[in-house]
Amino acid sequence: MPEVASLYKNIRVLYAEDEEGIRENISFVLSLFFKDVLVAKDGQEALELFEEGKPDLLIFDICMPKMDGIEVLQRIRKMDKEIPIIVLTAHTEQSYLFRAIELNITRYLLKPFSKDALLGAIKECVLKLLKGNESIDLGKGYVFDCVTKNLYYQGRPIPLSLHELKLMQVLSLEPQKIFSFEELIEAIWGWEVVTKEALKSLVKTLRKKLPEPLIDNVFGVGYRLDTAL
């Protein structure tokens, strides 16, 4: 798995495909990595789910009923010019692909594509999302670089353990968002059975390397990175 996989579950994906068999297979694969996967069977439904669900990443088939993928993406680009897009297509006509490229897509995959090709395209999109928030000013001379995964104080790196780094990555993905205890434990330790006390201990050690009171404890819910302080 790509090294940013621990952050996948904090990203919401919208996947649109009209072929039922392909849709079921790919949506299953996506559900293994992402917490929220919105699935549409046609262009109209994809547009509605985009407007309602506010996804972070789009994976679209080009040829769909009711409204083809190009038309949907044209409408989406009027609302969001930066969201990463992976286009899936069996079409090889240059004019068709040129229309897709003009929409600033991140990657396109020609059917049939391999699982590795899909995961590679997804990794590229996740990195693009992280680069959109390339570094976070934590205040008092502290900065976290989301791409290089380094914490700095006045330009000097501060060593982080693997678990401290994972916690910092997750909290930095969406500053001000409250991440539940369960979300953080799953992102940091995966399938390993870990108690809330272990998470609290990890937060305590990371807090010693950060300005106070950056990591905010929301009683009974979880933690957030309170960069507004």
Would you give an account of this structure?
By secondary structure, the protein is an alpha/beta fold. The protein folds into 2 domains: 5-131, Rossmann fold (3-Layer(aba) Sandwich), CATH 3.40.50; 135-225, Arc Repressor Mutant, subunit A (Orthogonal Bundle). The protein is built from 8 helices and 12 strands. It has a 5-stranded parallel β-sheet with strand order 2-1-3-4-5, sandwiched between helices. Strands 6-7-8-9 form a 4-stranded antiparallel β-sheet, with helices on one face. α2 packs parallel to α3 and α6 packs across α8. The mean pLDDT is 84.
Largest sheet: 5 strands, parallel
Q: From the alpha-carbon coordinates, what is the Rg to the nearest angstrom? A: 19 Å
**The CATH architecture of the largest domain:** 3-Layer(aba) Sandwich
Give the low-pLDDT segments: none
Overall shape: it is: elongated
Total number of helical segments? 8
CATH superfamily of the largest domain: Response regulator
Q: Which whole number gives the mean pLDDT? A: 84
How much β-strand is present in the residues? 15-25%
Q: What is the count of distinct domains? A: 2
Q: Between the first and last Cα atoms, what is the distance in angstroms?
A: 36 Å
Q: Quickly name the level 1 CATH class of the largest domain.
A: Alpha Beta
**SSE order:** EHEHEHEHEHEEEEHEHHEE
- In spatial order, strands of the major sheet run 2-1-3-4-5
> Count the strands?
12
